[in-house]
């Protein structure tokens, strides 16, 4: 595991975390209704967004003005529709707002988690942590796969998400209702205290974001257990060498219709298994990647019935390749066109495939490394 993270996570914690995530998706309809009702009870404005277009529409409608809005974004990605026209939305960074370099009327922020039991919203080590009291409106985006069932789940999941040596986020902000901010009173009198309390409006957008597409395939449902800790990306040789996409993102992206089950999945993973080893919620990442490869393989007219992914399934055989010649041949055949990955595997002296469970191997496929027309 990367030095950035705390010591290895015990199997007991992994199993508990896996069950916590399972519990939400096992009864997802009731849990979504439950959290919506809690938000409403807490006095929050609740909206649903099935896709990015709806998300942008809701955000535009929640802005205080029809144009020239100054908005601070603390989200994974700002949709192009929101940032395309500066006359409608001027994008401000959390750092510039926190340092009082710019003023913003609205903060748009992703919640790290939300809790169905009491409707609380959790923000862990967010760049915007000092911006909440500097705006008049807060729009919280809750990805529906980041909802926990019970308050008792918070401590465990936060510990596993943290990258700090203290094994817990340095700053955790909990928000459950609209709040007031304290501002200096420019018209203070001898009888006033020199400040006043102004209300801050809080709205919540429950964002589906393609999750239903993944839920439709029961074999891929566990990919939604992800808590976005970043561990899989830290250890992934492909992410380090040639892309900025993590193993869990590869799986999720390939599930969505707009990606059309792309053949690029074959060049985005080596199936080394390291991501699965470090996952704190026990997502079977390697098995899910092979499952996706099989789907693409069986539905691609270019590679129909060629059993492409079988060359990745020979992990036991490849681990026995102590001969430098065979390692050179295998590396050249699979990654000769990718200089970064070729160099990585050429210099790698450890076993390439270290998973013990070989149930996913296609035992009927040919054992030769036939890479003709594949890479």
Gist of the model:
The protein is an alpha/beta fold.
Descriptive labels:
375 residues, alpha/beta, Rossmann fold, 2 domains, seven-stranded mixed β-sheet, four-stranded mixed β-sheet, 15 helices, 11 strands, 34% helix, globular, disordered N terminus, disordered C terminus
Describe the structure.
The chain has 375 residues and is an alpha/beta fold. It folds into two domains: 11-207, NagB/RpiA/CoA transferase-like (Rossmann fold, 3-Layer(aba) Sandwich), CATH 3.40.50; 221-346, no CATH class. It has helices at residues 11-26, 28-41, 52-62, 80-83, 94-98, 154-161, 211-215, 231-235, 237-241, 247-255, 274-278, 285-299, 315-319, 324-335, 339-346; strands at residues 45-49, 69-74, 89-92, 106-110, 113-115, 121-124, 137-143, 147-148, 172-175, 179-184, 195-207. β5 and β6 (121-124) form a beta hairpin. α14 runs antiparallel to α15. The protein is globular. The model is unreliable at 1-6, 303-309 and 351-375 (pLDDT under 50).
Outline the secondary-structure elements.
Blueprint: H1 11-26, H2 28-41, E1 45-49, H3 52-62, E2 69-74, H4 80-83, E3 89-92, H5 94-98, E4 106-110, E5 113-115, E6 121-124, E7 137-143, E8 147-148, H6 154-161, E9 172-175, E10 179-184, E11 195-207, H7 211-215, H8 231-235, H9 237-241, H10 247-255, H11 274-278, H12 285-299, H13 315-319, H14 324-335, H15 339-346
Parallel strand pairs: 1-11, 2-3, 2-4, 4-7, 5-8, 7-11
Antiparallel strand pairs: 5-6, 6-9, 10-11
Helix pairs in contact: 10-12, 14-15
